[in-house]
TrEMBL record:
One of its GO terms (biological process) is methylation. GO terms for molecular function: S-adenosylmethionine-dependent methyltransferase activity. It comes from the Bacteria. The keyword Transferase applies. InterPro entries: Erg6_SMT_methyltransf, Methyltransf_11, SAM-dependent_MTases_sf. It comes from Paraburkholderia phenazinium. Residues 69-167 form the Methyltransferase type domain. This is Methyltransferase domain-containing protein. Keywords: Methyltransferase, Transferase.
Length: 276
């Protein structure tokens, strides 16, 4: 299977900018300049939402001068949070053209057009020169990529020596198969989880030293259970939420991810690595 083609098929959405423009208006945000918290339910496309982004950022030495590449930038929530909070510049890369256009639209609405940029590109062939960045950032990206060595090797290439690689991903926790669909894949053929040991081994081979490794699984389970309880209490789904972008199947996909975590089939890890 062509990973890039399958990823694009899973995430691509027609008229996404117009859909978001309408949802913002109906939510009462109109032409208001948006903040990271205004969009947190919509554009943080990973377990634990904005909280996971905040925690990952706090584990890193980010300043106004930091040059960041967000690999698999999605709707741009993490990149805009970094730019808004730390004043750094962030370049996002994503396979989905509709997500690139939506992220650019939301950056303009957030007043961050001068700090964040987005372009379509492949994580296995990043459109940047070597040593271009101080920090590479990925949240829930590698699960869609079968060639983990190529992903980590290309990330290492665009980082300067001593630069950091920040990761928040789902990994395999046992040999038991996942319940599908999950947020990143409708079928097993487009999901590529690795174990913690496998991930550590590939990172080391591709030029990284792991400086921090945190299991976030229990926090993730609690977060999903809280979201499920909120949905049951609400008579109507929120207008600015990932389900409005990803469609009706997304609710079951998130329930399945929580179930996979609870049953020990998958786990959540936060890792900080340094280019050696």
């Amino acid at each position: 299977m062509d990973d890039a083609a399958e990823i694009t098929r899973h995430y691509e959405r027609e008229s996404l900018v117009e859909h978001l423009r309408s949802a913002l208006a109906k939510s009462g945000l109109g032409e208001k300049q948006l903040s990271a918290r205004d969009l947190a339910q919509l554009d943080q496309f990973h377990s634990r939402g904005l909280a996971a982004t905040v925690e990952l950022a706090k584990a890193l030495p980010i300043t106004e001068a930091t040059r960041v590449v967000d690999i698999g930038s999605g709707l741009g929530g993490p990149s805009r949070y970094l730019a808004e909070t730390y004043g750094c510049t962030v370049h996002g890369v994503d396979l989905s053209q509709s997500f690139v256009e939506a992220a650019t639209f939301l950056a303009e609405r957030s007043g961050l057009g001068g700090k964040v940029t987005y372009q379509r590109g492949n994580a296995l062939s990043l459109p940047f020169p070597a040593d271009a960045f101080d920090l590479a950032w990925t949240q829930h990206v590698a699960m869609n990529i079968s060639d983990r060595a190529a992903l980590y090797g290309e990330t290492c290439r665009v980082l300067r020596s001593g630069g950091h690689f920040a990761i928040f991903d789902v990994i395999a926790a046992s040999n038991e198969p996942l319940h599908f669909p999950v947020p990143w894949a409708s079928v097993p053929e487009s999901s590529f989880l690795v174990t913690a040991d496998e991930m550590r081994t590939v990172l080391a081979k591709e030029g990284f030293r792991i400086t921090s490794w945190t299991d976030c699984t229990e926090a993730g389970i609690s977060w999903f259970l809280e979201r499920e309880a909120e949905r049951k209490q609400s008579s109507t789904p929120p207008l600015l939420a990932l389900g409005t972008v990803m469609g009706p199947e997304f609710g079951q996909a998130t329930v399945n991810l929580r179930r996979n975590l609870s049953e020990g089939r998958a786990a959540l890890i936060q890792a900080i690595c340094e280019k050696v």
